[in-house]
Amino acid sequence: MDQLDSVVQLLDSNGSFANHSQYISTLSDSELFDFYRDMVLVRALDEQATALQRQGELGLWAPLLGQEAAQIGSARAMRKQDFAFSTYREHGVAWCRGVDPVDMLSFWRGTKHQGWDANQYRFYGYQIIIGAHALHATGYAMGAYLSRNTETGDAGKDQAVMAYFGDGAMSEGDVNEAFVFAASYQAPVVFYCQNNQWAISEPTRRQSRVPLAYRAAGFGIPGIRVDGNDVIACYEVTKQALDRARSGGGPTLIEAITYRMGAHTTSDDPTKYQVFSDVELWRDRDPIERLKVYLRAKGVLNNELESEISDEAAALTERMRKGCRELPDPNPLSMFNHVYSESDLNIDEQRREVETILSRSQNN
Predict the structure, then answer these.
(1) Buried-most residue among 64, 177, 348, 363 (CB within 10 A)?
(2) How many CB atoms lie within 10 A of CB 353?
(3) Total number of domains in the chain
(4) Residue 323 has pLDDT above 50, yes or no
(5) Does the model's pTM come out above 0.70?
(6) Which residues carry out catalysis?
């Protein structure tokens, strides 16, 4: 609980490295370069998806601008067998788990409910219902424990679960119920709250009189606050929590303190409630620029490498534009598939009605 007294930070907003008594960076220069590349490409992905929505190609998009470090750092701390449950904004986590960006777009374009095989990528799809997936993650973690996929000492088998949500979800009953079950069963789950300061237009300070990580104590769960714009600290804090979960130490709540630089979704206008001076303050704490300064000072990053990443980002966004427009429309009858495990008379009747309507439209 001593970590509640301070925010874990290994790389400050000026790009200077600072030692920490409990969290020591284990990352190599090449790994840090990969983190930088991840963040740059994910930001490009995010900006392109926002543009596609503005052009009418997507129904909606939830930007992650400013939260790249919180997502990349935590996701890269996961092992292949770990499983992640996300909200609607974890595009960076999806990227780290290997999900194709065009598949991410299919959900927002409305062509698929689930754009990828969750078991293949160990990443469950976007969840719009606020906080409900925290219970799903806890249940999955309980299953991993009961299936003896933890505490074996086998690095390739021991499993942990990541549950991502925002500060607004901390006020939801589902999340607090998940804390109860996780603590009671010592489930191997890491609750990762990206405190981006805003639950749509509601500031965090109005939801909680104390830092969100403080709430963990009431459930008997360790709570840790980390600088969410410091990708190195996010990685090390999450890695330690995941290692603890896999070895039988139970759940952890991590509060990654960051800031939502963009809109809640593309249907939102943040200028109606965000203070300009706050936005500018957090713009100076940009997670990508912070790591860039550090890597350049170490000689890991130079103009040539930056140019290569820029070219890669341009190719990625071009592929997204093309791929988005080529996504096939779903068969209208597919809405009736998998509603119930067995045949249902009402659903069957509705299906026949739609079949009749489609047949008429095709004949006209």
Answers:
(1) 64
(2) 10
(3) 2
(4) yes
(5) yes
(6) 260, 264, 273
